């Protein structure tokens, strides 16, 4: 019975509680602090109780204040020795040092060349600008001089015209007076005689010379001087008139026999047909072919072109050269022996 009760009991450990030490005579409270614009804030206030000793009470022993020991002097800071800079080429070989030196020299030379080129370009631009300014000033000066000269010429011309008009008006006003004075000086029978002005001679044109044939009489004028066009000019004029008469009339179509080889150019075909190359090219363009005068066509195409243009065609080939060379067979008496034909292969 007791064993069973013992088994029913469970062993348990109470939870760990935190130990706190409250200071004596200390109490806390909260105070609400008000600010402007209606704002408030709660402030925690601690109140500590202070014990006041009475004179009758025994004075507590005053603890001796410890004597301050002088602070030990700080140890002197060791001064770091300046580290000598390592030579830049300490870990480089002689070839690398030489290559760097050459690269530095080349870079310096390039910088000098670039600076020199920039200076030259700036000087050149300055010279060109000065040259353009000088040319512009020279052009302006010439224009001003030309305007002044033109104005002076116009003024001089106006003065001359005014003087001429004035002289003309004066002469016109003085002419009747002079005529009256001259008429008074003439005798009565001389006053009736009037001088008729000479009629200007009719100038001769070149059309009168071309109306008749060129003869010796027509070639020489009344004074015996040679005049009129030369014989060469007459021939050229007659030839020109003949060509104009030929071109004005309709051209008659002439059918020709055209000999066509296996291949022929368009220009040669047009020449054999006495046609223009342009007409042949136009015919091919109508057929949907774009060709030039120097293009080569076969005999069949050339035959079609010639037949459409109204010409007859005669076809020839390179094998036709042998036609007629062997007209008949040789007789047995004319035959002669010959060595055999041996062909070596390989």
Give an overview in words.
With 346 residues, this protein is mainly alpha-helical. Among the domains are: 95-192; 257-318, no CATH class. 46% of the residues lie in helices and 9% in strands. It contains nine helices and six strands, in the order αββαααααββααβαβ. The chain has helices at residues 2-8, 94-185, 188-191, 206-210, 216-219, 231-248, 266-273, 277-286, 299-308, and strands at 26-34, 40-48, 257-260, 263-265, 296-298, 312-315. The strands form three sheets. Strands 1-2 form a two-stranded antiparallel sheet. Strands 3-6 form a two-stranded parallel sheet. The chain is flat, with a radius of gyration of 69 Å.
Architecture blueprint of SSEs:
Elements lengths: L1 H7 L17 E9 L5 E9 L45 H92 L2 H4 L14 H5 L5 H4 L11 H18 L8 E4 L2 E3 H8 L3 H10 L9 E3 H10 L3 E4 L31
Parallel strand pairs: 3-6
Antiparallel strand pairs: 1-2, 4-5
From the structure above, extract its key features.
9% strand, 346 residues, two-stranded parallel ribbon, two-stranded antiparallel ribbon, mainly alpha
The arrangement of helices and strands along the chain is HEEHHHHHEEHHEHE
Portion of residues in beta strands equals: 5-15%
Distance between the termini: 135 Å
Approximate helicity band: 40-55%
Order of strands across the widest beta sheet?
A: 1-2
Number of helices: 9
**What structural class results from the helix and strand content?**
mainly alpha
**How many β-strand runs?**
6
Put the structure in a nutshell.
This protein has 9 helices and 6 strands. It has 346 residues and is mainly alpha-helical.
